[in-house]
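Write out the 3D structure for:
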Amino acid sequence: PILYGYFRSSCSWRVRIALALKGISYDLVPVNLLKDGGQQFSAEFKAVNPMQQVPALKIDGITLSQSLAIINYLEDTRPNPRLLPQDPKKRAQVRMIADHIVSGIQPLQNVNVLKQMGEKKMEWAQNCIAVGFQALEQILQHTAGRYCVGDEVSMADLCLVPQVANAERFKVDMAPYPTITRINKDLLELEAFKVSHPSRQPDTPAELRA
């Protein structure tokens, strides 16, 4: 497998966690979202992913983009360890939380949107994350065990940790979100979350390395 990604991209991080949890080794092709006006806009990368976004994964003779589509494919083809519960209600809750983050929070504060916001980008990002986290905290109070849904790591957790890292980068006050904070802390103790961390990637700049 070949993963096209960027060390700081939360969407790339979700996929790195899934690959690590499932024990899938891969080669990384870094795509720097800021360098050269954004390497994702190159003709070479557009041939890999016409949407010009990371991540993209070449695996089993196909090329997939969109982090949840990639994770779902890995789940279908390499089901251990399971990232979606067998119970239909829990499975729906996992997908709901993942979609909440992937559709309702992250796109509003990604690189392309923040470019449009100019000087207001920090305030905009903080507000988008805070609105999303208020809802997420409420949801997790009904679904969480040790992790987002019960006591098993799921696709929801793969989405949560990178989003909390974004919140911290944008200096969002995490005090109102104790459930999110606790789950995030527990997940960061797990090896798959450590090895996939943005501070430990081949393309991480020296000053940001762990």
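The longest strand covers residues 2-5.
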